[in-house]
Amino acid sequence: MAINLYGRVQDGVIVALQNMEETHIGGFKGNWVEIQGNFGIGDLYSQDDGFSVYVPTTEELEADGRGWRNNELKDTDFIIPLSDYPNRDTWITYRQTLRDWTATDDFPATKPNKP
After folding, report:
1. Per-residue confidence of the chain (115 residues) as pLDDT tens digits?
2. Taking the domains of the chain in order of start, what are their residue ranges?
3. Angstrom distance (rounded) from CA 64 to CA 91
């Protein structure tokens, strides 16, 4: 018997993965389906439509972008008081670009590049 990858579906989302033989899948609690292609945890599954990739909302994309930006600012905070830091002015400009990024047409699709 071949070993296949199965996913446990909860509320229409794959929440767990398990490699096993098809004959053993019935012994596991929950609704399990055989995984097809590159689908996995977090992807959507419907009895009617099968698998689909989760598409985040605009609000989720923007929240992720702001989270990334905030981490970048936090990670470069130490540069500000160091007047002799290499390329300090470039880093200060980068930090301002990060602050302005959320008001641009590039937000959240295109992240500013580090110097």
Report:
1. 678 888 889 888 889 888 887 767 677 778 888 888 888 888 888 877 777 766 778 998 999 999 999 999 999 999 999 999 999 999 999 999 999 999 999 999 999 999 9
2. 3-52, 58-101
3. 22
